[in-house]
Specification:
The structure is a single chain. By secondary structure, this protein is an all-alpha fold. The protein folds into 2 domains: about 1-35, no CATH class; about 40-110, Orthogonal Bundle (Muramoyl-pentapeptide Carboxypeptidase, domain 1). About 65% of the residues lie in helices and about 0% in strands. It has helices at about 1-20, 20-35, 40-45, 50-65, 75-90, 100-110. The longest helix is centred in the first third of the chain and has 17 residues, at about 1-20.
């Protein structure tokens, strides 16, 4: 009987050593979720737009008080963040992409003199 108890105790000890804590499991799950999430900003920065399209967007974003940077035609993180904020403010999907609807709304923003 004592041999069985010893075997059971060794078995339980082995299981306990291999079991991960709740914190470890949560961290691993968080990492998996991060890996599964698309990188919206990276996708927006990789979009194929001309410098003229970006200048037009930057001008509209400035007029809408969403962008304080230079109007230089360079698609950078500041411009993408401003596009996302503009899209959120207009009920669009805030993906930072200069899609047709976003371009039209930016074009229609009254320009400052």
């Amino acid at each position: 009987m004592s041999k069985r108890i010893a075997v059971v105790m060794v078995f339980l000890a082995l299981i306990g050593c291999k079991a991960k804590s709740a914190e470890q499991r949560a961290r691993e799950q968080l990492e998996k979720m991060k890996e599964a999430m698309p990188d919206v900003e990276a996708r927006a920065l990789e979009q194929k737009v001309t410098p003229e399209d970006v200048r037009m967007a930057q001008t509209g974003l400035q007029a809408a008080d969403e962008y304080l940077g230079p109007v230089n035609g360079q698609l950078d993180a500041v411009t993408v963040n401003a596009i996302e904020a503009f899209q959120r403010g207009h009920g669009l999907k805030d993906n930072g992409l200069l899609d047709e609807r976003t371009r039209q709304l930016l074009h229609d923003v009254p320009k400052k003199d």
